[in-house]
Design brief:
single chain, alpha+beta, seven-stranded mixed sheet, six-stranded antiparallel sheet, disordered N terminus
Length: 706
């Protein structure tokens, strides 16, 4: 693969000699900018999986994405501004060819002016109370509401957004007072006037803090936003990583994370949760989820600090901390837009928690094994170290020694990893044959084959997935489904990420440049199942679909703007197993159990309620009506507070080899005890065990050729 990205140095030199002069570029390092412009208009066009034309459609994407990235809440730009910007709406593609960034300079300069104007606006508006008796509403679906017509209407947008923040703060303060009054009869409540003044003062401080941190951002930060608006025109997984972001990416790949155990990403001015590290503090706490937005950070009981607009590096400094200390995150939930304070005790997240682990459970007199695989991990720099395939083979062997009758492979929340390990793990369950197909742009698909005839596990197999199972997880699950080797159980479908990215250090293409230029993460391949269908967008549909909180959400790859489409290639030659004598009956029985299960029905109702809340984005700005709406929503939500409370009354234990490890590592023992308790309370694991216990193997596994 490496050879596909070798560009002769002479070609680069000639290209740069024709680049624009430094006075057209935004930074004081024109050579760096020329390198990056070269990457945009050459490397992507030549080597990205999609041969994208830099045309008017591409130009419109960059135009819209950059403006939205700077002003996601529509606080700054008006339709008058957009009218001026629109002169470049279909010219950006031409500008990129000429290394011209007049569009960026115009929008960025206007943004700086609007920021200064916005500072004056919010400070002026917060000098006096709003009219909280006025009957009016605010729509916070910023993707759909239009930009303000003019400056006058823009100020009214500001007024409504600030008023909503104050109402929320007043309501929180009143609720806290009511709780204190219940515990202390002598507690004296503050008046609405006092609470309003304090809330307004707090919102002012938060806004000042926000603007102070936005002011710390450099031109290069905003230029990176522009660059990502350009590269995202190829697909949502192609991104430019500045040297700082690339350094953090490398640190995360090293296998040791400190703090809350979550990977974060900056999108616009917001800090998003990208992924929870399995076994980490946030994962154990259980309330934080991928795609949640962190708004504020508090150290224990201290006053929370607003991190909206803060550099990601700076935000991470506040979120990280010493092991055993508490951080309280004010989070906007992706699932319904609600605001929630989540307390987490910090810890050191070791790589050990991303490794394969297993447990044994006795059900109806038979032993079953469950293997949790958090990632398809491997260290390509040191192949002597542990990797997922070797560990999986070893773990299966240990479970076989304890005479388990069936096996669950849990891929829930597994975002993928190494293609090599996915192929090798697939090979542990079949004789030999193709596992996946991969395809470069304009080339025939390559069939990736397991060549080892050894079958490590021949017994009943259930594979658990959910909406966060992606990439390599989908390859393994799809292979087991196509071979009819295992039952896939979980959410309706997996994430649907069927693309491969390669991280390319930009300095590779311009070795004479002395400083780090960052990197380009670029989509170079697409995955296909051995049956010919892509895992892109569609993912893998479960044989047994279980209701989850995401059942009715637009979720996964299909919800990303610009995601590559689903397609298919020729089916690979493979021989399906005829492993089970009662596959269809087992699937039918499970579906009947789920349909008649009160808990699952309640989860389904909860999913519908969450979808309804996600779609309702209009709030009253009359305080009495605001409180009534909030009370009604809270009351509605109370019916779902216990829906995930479940107890299978099964006992999960560690395999025997771990018992010796516990004598040396009590922390590991505590982690396993916590995991086993979670398994016992997991309704999805319980149903997977029901399915596993019913599966019957054919005496002779008759192969069916495809």
């Amino acid at each position: 693969m490496k050879t596909k990205f070798i560009i002769p140095f002479l070609a680069i030199t000639l290209l740069f000699s024709n680049s624009v002069s430094s006075n057209t570029l935004p930074n004081n390092d024109p050579e760096k900018d020329r390198v990056i412009v070269y990457i945009l208009k050459n490397i992507l066009s030549r080597y990205h999986y999609v041969q994208k034309k830099l045309n008017d459609d591409f130009s419109e994407h960059v135009y819209t994405t950059f403006i939205d990235g700077l002003d996601p809440s529509k606080r700054y730009f008006t339709q008058e501004d957009l009218k001026e910007f629109s002169q470049y709406k279909y010219q950006i593609d031409n500008q990129l060819r000429e290394s011209n960034i007049d569009f960026y300079k115009l929008v960025y300069q206007r943004f700086l002016e609007k920021m200064e104007s916005g500072k004056k606006t919010y400070r002026s508006l917060l000098k006096q109370p709003f009219n909280y008796k006025k009957k009016e509403t605010i729509d916070i679906d910023y993707d759909k509401i239009p930009y303000a017509q003019n400056e006058t209407e823009l100020i009214d947008y500001w007024r409504k957004q600030l008023k909503l923040s104050i109402l929320s703060n007043i309501e929180d303060a009143e609720n806290q007072q009511n709780e204190k009054a219940k515990k202390d009869k002598t507690f004296k409540k503050k008046s609405f006037k006092e609470l309003e003044f304090e809330a307004r003062k707090k919102v002012l401080k938060n806004m000042d803090d926000l603007y102070m941190r936005i002011g710390e951002l450099e031109n290069s930060d905003w230029y990176s936003t522009f660059l990502n608006s350009v590269v995202s025109g190829f697909d949502p997984h192609t991104t430019y990583m500045s040297p700082r972001i690339k350094t953090r990416f490398d640190q995360e790949m090293s296998g040791k994370l400190e703090g809350i155990g979550a990977r974060l990403q900056k999108k616009g001015i917001y800090t998003h949760i990208v992924e929870l590290i399995s076994g980490g503090p946030a994962w154990k706490q259980g309330e934080l989820e991928a795609d949640d937005i962190i708004l504020k950070v508090a150290q224990g009981d201290e006053e929370p600090l607003d991190i909206v607009g803060m550099r990601l590096d700076d935000a991470i400094k506040f979120i990280k901390g010493k092991k055993g200390t508490e951080v309280r995150l004010t989070v906007k939930k992706k699932i319904d837009g609600s605001i929630k304070v989540i307390p987490i005790i910090r810890d050191v997240v070791e790589l050990e928690e991303t490794f394969v682990k297993s447990s044994i459970v006795d059900k109806n007199g038979k032993k079953y094994g469950i293997i949790n695989l958090p990632r398809f991990y491997i260290d390509f720099n040191d192949l002597s170290r542990r990797d997922a395939a070797k560990d999986m083979e070893k773990e299966i062997e240990r479970l076989k020694e304890e005479n388990v009758q069936g096996l669950i492979v849990d891929l829930r929340d597994n975002g993928g990893g190494s293609l090599k390990t996915a192929i090798e793990i697939g090979g542990l369950f079949i004789n030999k044959g193709p596992i996946v197909q991969v395809k470069y742009r304009g080339e025939d698909p390559l069939v990736k084959v397991d060549t080892d005839p050894k079958i490590q596990w021949e017994g009943p197999l259930v594979v658990m997935v959910n909406e966060f199972s992606a990439s390599a997880s989908e390859i393994f699950a799809a292979a087991m489904q196509d071979y009819k080797r295992g039952v896939i159980i979980g959410g309706k479908q997996t994430y649907g990420k069927g693309t491969v990215q390669n991280v390319l250090p930009i300095n590779r293409f311009y070795e004479q440049y002395p400083n780090d230029l960052g990197a380009l993460k670029m989509t170079i391949q697409k995955f296909y199942r051995i049956n010919g269908g892509s895992t892109q967008i569609e993912g893998v549909y479960s044989d047994i679909s279980l209701p989850t909180r995401y059942s009715y959400m637009d979720f996964g790859e299909r919800d990303l703007d610009g995601a590559l489409p689903w397609d298919k290639v020729q089916q690979a030659k493979y021989t399906a197993t005829n492993s089970y004598s009662n596959f269809a009956d087992v699937v039918y029985n499970s579906k009947q159990r789920v349909m008649n299960n009160e808990k699952f029905n309640k989860i389904n109702d909860y999913a519908k309620w969450l979808k309804k809340n996600q779609d309702e984005r209009v709030y009253s700005l009359n305080y009495e009506a605001f409180k009534e709406e909030s009370k009604a929503k809270t009351k509605e939500g109370e019916q779902f507070k216990d829906i995930f409370k479940f107890d299978s009354h099964l006992t999960f234990v560690s395999p025997k080899y771990e018992l010796n490890l516990f004598k040396k590592d009590t922390v590991l023992e505590e982690k396993r005890v916590a995991w086993h308790q979670n398994l016992r309370k997991d309704i999805y694991v319980n149903e997977a065990l029901n399915v596993l216990s019913e599966l019957k193997m054919n005496d002779n596994h008759v192969a069916v050729k495809h």
